[in-house]
Write a structure and sequence with these properties.
Mean pLDDT: 77
Strand order of the largest sheet: 1-2-3-5-4
Strand content: 5-15%
Shape: elongated
CATH class of the largest domain: Alpha Beta
CATH architecture of the largest domain: Roll
Distance between the termini: 102 Å
Order of helices and strands: EEEHHEEHHHHHHH
Number of helices: 9
Oligomer: single chain
Structural class: alpha+beta
Number of domains: 3
Largest sheet: 5 strands, antiparallel
CATH topology of the largest domain: Mlu1-box Binding Protein, DNA-binding Domain
Low-confidence stretches: 109-117
Length: 241
């Protein structure tokens, strides 16, 4: 399918190929003011490594090479004819027109939807609310212990657990409505990859727990070393059989 383009009274066949406009090497040579039809082909052959696959095609049925508008612009960049400069401006205007005619693509629906899971556990609800509020999970637990008037509300009977899930899901929706899209996307991405975002309070608490465990391990190692030394001393003095 070909339409007509006109550059400085030179008619060019606009060939639609793969949803793009292409110009034959012959027409391009005429537009640039070359007397030889092969002039554009020679320019391409000298600089073929600078053209991408989408910029040019060799069509056997036409017996000619065709160039996209971007390919034609690149040919004009290598050209030294008097009309090359004007052609470059003209082809860029055509490109701008083509882009403006194309409808803007609708933004894709987020692949990572942040929908609440009806079967989510209380611990997960606590964690997600803490993430959106920017506080530690321990603070969330303390808050709801006052709401449910129980220090052990996460381990209460089935009725209290169901009530707690309902309240926390409602509060989670409220927090989501107030959260920024960037935060929701970040939480969703982390959740989809099996990760958890950790705020500073939770991170420091986790570090504290690790340090305590490390200290306990070191104390245990010291006791084992001392016990081993005592055993060797007893055995060396014949006090341990």
């Amino acid at each position: 399918m070909a339409n007509q383009l006109t550059f400085q009274n030179v008619s060019l066949d606009a060939i639609v190929y793969g949803d793009q406009i292409f110009i034959t090497s012959t027409d391009l040579a005429r537009a640039l003011g070359y007397k030889s039809d092969n002039a554009v082909t020679k320019i391409y052959n000298r600089n073929a490594d600078e053209f991408s696959e989408c910029m040019t095609h060799n069509l056997p049925n036409l017996g000619k090479r065709i160039f996209s508008l971007r390919g034609a612009h690149l040919i004009a960049m290598f050209s030294r004819t008097e009309t090359a400069k004007d052609f470059r401006k003209w082809v860029l205007d055509i490109l701008d027109t083509e882009v403006s005619r194309q409808p803007l693509p609708k933004p894709p629906s987020p692949a990572l939807s942040y929908l609440p899971d009806l079967n989510v556990t209380l611990n997960d609800l606590i964690y997600e609310i803490a993430q959106l509020r920017g506080v530690s999970t321990e603070q969330i637990r303390i808050h709801y212990s006052h709401v449910f008037n129980s220090q052990n509300w996460t381990a209460e009977n089935e009725f209290v657990a169901a009530l707690a899930r309902s309240v926390l899901r409602r509060d989670l929706e409220t927090e989501r409505a107030k959260a920024t899209p960037d935060m929701l996307q970040l939480v969703a991405m982390a959740k989809a990859r099996g990760f958890h975002l950790v705020n500073e309070s939770d991170f420091l608490a986790f570090q504290g727990q690790l340090q305590m465990q490390q200290e306990q391990i070191e104390k245990l190692i010291d006791k084992l070393v001392n016990l081993s030394r005592n055993n060797r001393w007893l055995m060396s003095h014949g006090l341990w059989q």
